[in-house]
Design brief:
single chain, mainly alpha, 9 helices, 68% helix
Length: 164
């Protein structure tokens, strides 16, 4: 249960960019990330925790960690309830509907030529969309793009919008 609690709450805190709460949740379960975790969600948590350290700075990070180690279950429930009240930000700000379609198709493993046929666009346009997605999301290749889409729940079936 502690592992599920840590993963669930920390990933929500990371999505909300509530870095202090993220660090406190991890410290609460007293499991330094990375000692035994190798799955995709654990790696995502490692990245979020490293980002929290960078954003907060070492002193604030250590204060949050110390506070987290001293929390009790009612404190965690209160933090979780506060976190649940925060509005959820969209997972893909700035992406066009066409880029979202492209993202889903890339995550499903379709190469540019197939995407072009499915979306009724040229292969060059499909390639351009893929390049735009990489740039907007700060990713380096299609594998990272597919992983990002899966992690954000955007890899499901897509129905291409008809051309105007």
């Amino acid at each position: 249960m502690r592992d599920a609690l840590r993963l669930g709450l920390t990933l929500v805190a990371a999505e909300q960019q509530d870095w202090i709460t993220l660090v406190q949740f991890v410290a609460f379960v007293n499991d330094p990330v990375g000692e035994r975790s190798q799955g995709m969600l654990h790696r995502r948590l490692q990245r979020a925790l490293a980002h929290a350290r960078e954003v907060l700075g070492e002193a604030a990070y250590q204060r949050a960690w110390t506070t987290g180690t001293q929390l009790q279950v009612p404190d965690i429930v209160e933090l979780a309830e506060r976190l649940a009240q925060m509005p959820i930000s969209p997972p893909c700000p700035g992406l066009t509907p066409r880029e979202l379609e492209m993202l889903a198709l890339v995550a499903q493993g379709h190469p540019d030529r197939r995407v072009a046929r499915l979306l009724d666009i040229s292969p060059g346009t499909a390639s351009k969309h893929a390049g735009n997605l990489l740039g907007k999301l700060g990713l380096h290749n299609r594998v990272e793009l597919a992983r990002w889409a899966i992690e954000h729940g955007l890899a499901g079936e897509t129905r291409p919008t008809p051309p105007l």
